[in-house]
């Protein structure tokens, strides 16, 4: 006999949110799933696909996850991504991930001087940074044009989700609603879906981390005048007391993406996590830094100031095979590990693979798929949240046991990304599939 909850009609999956995570999942389901079994539909609150922010860097694990989602996504990324510079490291060809510099005068004997080079971090990642909006455009191009109307709806801000015997009703701010079999939240750190999943339980509200960041763009010609030719070539991490900077070239080396982090005890802007800023604001916060840094900040074009929030660890990413969470709505982190967007892409790779394993349209298999995804993704993604906070403290010379001891800083930097970079995404997906099938066997053996 078939599983309880079996249906002859395809399972309808509502994907809430059309950012990098939501689009990655949609592409993965289209690649791995059977349309006779699963029919995904993405609901985006905005009137068109759009990404806020400028540059985003992807680590080797995220690049491999793109291929696991769809080789065409990996190919599209390869067309637009900047290529990392090569280096010979003990006879092996490596790519430079980041150059690390001192941003201000060191405090104490034997310390580095302002803008001294502290070290270099290498990896095997040939491709690295892209402009978020350009990457999103490339993802949209991969959607089948003839089916786009059946796959995506705009102007659909989710306001409520109600589970009932017939399925799940999703309500939108325009007064419409849809009945589906399951909802996957990809709606970011301020997620409506997450709040509904955990309704009546512990609240998982984003927490201010004690840091904010100025973000802006600088034409590469101007940036090289401030920092030298390294700005046009390298991802740069600039360390200092109570703050740090990250810069990297985007748009095929035509523009420098600048993120300048600074600490404070509170965020006085309420629910507005991105506010307009001025160059004068940035210069005041970084007045004790070296002249190259102040010159670079003076060149920022229309800078924004971003409050940095992250989420406490959730106890589950899924509910009864009806609701599931992906990306920032499940595990929003600070950007200090540079892994947030990559984790969403990993999520999409695993979730689309287990959903693609469903062979008949029944909700029991959907429950198993969500549970398997939760089992393999939750610990890894929440580790990013906690580790990312401590990495920010490392860069600001505030990490206990390390401080501004540059030898300890170098040792930590040389290995801190290994556990992220080294993920075998295919093995990770196989682990999830194994759990899904094991759950299936246990279910069949149970009375």
UniProtKB/TrEMBL annotation:
Keywords: FAD, Flavoprotein, Membrane, Oxidoreductase, Transmembrane, Transmembrane helix. GO terms for biological process: secondary metabolite biosynthetic process. The keyword Mitochondrion does not apply. The chain crosses the membrane at residues 12-30. Residues 153-388 form the FAD-binding domain. SUPFAM superfamilies: FAD-linked reductases, C-terminal domain (SSF54373), FAD/NAD(P)-binding domain (SSF51905). Coiled coil: none annotated. It comes from the Eukaryota. This is FAD-binding domain-containing protein. It comes from Cladophialophora yegresii CBS 114405. The lineage of its organism: Eukaryota, Fungi, Dikarya, Ascomycota, Pezizomycotina.
